[in-house]
């Protein structure tokens, strides 16, 4: 059973989803397999952004919202990893929500696949709200912190540096910060950005809802969490976006405080229902250039 993860907005239940589609007269297409097919067919999205302080161009692969668990298996993760490696990025960034398993669930198959990610500047990630559910925090389980620490260690053994309110200088001209999950973690934006020292700055945040509360200008923020709504309908857009700001940060290029550019990925996995509609899973390749 999928644990009751916390979020800013109610999750779309199977019953609500089907009722909405029936009312709009499009349930036949989705139930006929179109939605299921779209859920497991991903694309590579290529974006370019200037970054102040960057000395030379950099290519970063961004993968988020994998949701390994009942609806996403190792075959999907393996395909995403192979696609990311084929892009030959300088840096791999992971945006959280890796796990959709209960406390004590086995993450070994997921980590075996993620350990194959390759980039000369390293692989970095942040935690998401479903990860905290998998630690047991959303269950008020007293052992959740020990499980988080153990997963932190296992990710490190797989070659992935998890950033929780901290950052790293990944290149002489580039600082990467990572903030803890907004709704289920203990986020500290100032700590995440401390150490930039005038370098070009990237910030990883699973949830884009922190964008209005940035303490100062950031070069670029990368987020996931929303899945782009996961189910989108012609002319109407997403049925549900797990955000306090509605459609404002649903997907794509958006803007935070201090005119900070941000990119919100539709993510790769699914949650709640194994369906997507007009919202293809994405692996994002960002080419960052001096601004």
TrEMBL record:
SUPFAM superfamilies: Metallo-dependent phosphatases (SSF56300). The keyword Manganese does not apply. Keywords: Hydrolase, Metal-binding. InterPro entries: Calcineurin-like_PHP (IPR004843), Metallo-depent_PP-like (IPR029052), Metallophosphoesterase_sf (IPR051158), TAT_signal (IPR006311). It comes from the Bacteria. Residues 59-228 form the Calcineurin-like phosphoesterase domain. This is Metallophosphoesterase. It comes from Deinococcus malanensis.
């Amino acid at each position: 059973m999928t644990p009751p993860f916390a979020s800013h907005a109610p999750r779309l239940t199977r019953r609500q989803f089907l009722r909405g589609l029936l009312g709009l007269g499009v349930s036949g297409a989705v139930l006929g397999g179109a939605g299921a097919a779209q859920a497991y067919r991903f694309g590579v999205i290529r974006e370019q952004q200037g970054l102040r302080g960057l000395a030379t161009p950099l290519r970063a692969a961004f993968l988020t919202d994998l949701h390994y668990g009942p609806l996403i298996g190792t075959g999907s993760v393996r395909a995403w990893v192979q696609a990311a490696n084929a892009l030959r990025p300088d840096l791999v960034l992971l945006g959280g929500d890796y796990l959709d398993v209960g406390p004590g669930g086995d993450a070994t198959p997921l980590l075996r696949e993620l350990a194959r990610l390759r980039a000369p500047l390293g692989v970095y990630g942040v935690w998401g709200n479903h990860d905290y559910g998998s630690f047991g925090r959303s269950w008020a389980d007293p052992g959740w912190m020990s499980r988080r620490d153990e997963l932190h260690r296992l990710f490190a053994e797989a070659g992935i540096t998890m950033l929780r309110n901290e950052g790293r200088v990944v290149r002489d001209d580039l600082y990467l910060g990572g903030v803890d999950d907004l709704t289920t973690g203990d986020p500290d934006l100032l700590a995440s950005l401390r150490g930039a020292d005038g370098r070009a700055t990237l910030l990883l945040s699973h949830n884009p809802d922190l964008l209005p509360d940035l303490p100062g200008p950031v070069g670029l923020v990368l987020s996931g969490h929303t899945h782009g709504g996961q189910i989108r309908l012609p002319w109407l857009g997403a049925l549900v976006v797990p955000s306090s700001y509605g459609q404002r940060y649903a997907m794509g290029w958006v803007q935070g405080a201090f005119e900070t550019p941000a990119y919100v990925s539709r993510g790769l996995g699914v949650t709640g229902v194994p369906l997507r509609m007009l919202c293809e899973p994405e692996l994002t390749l960002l080419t960052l250039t001096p601004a």
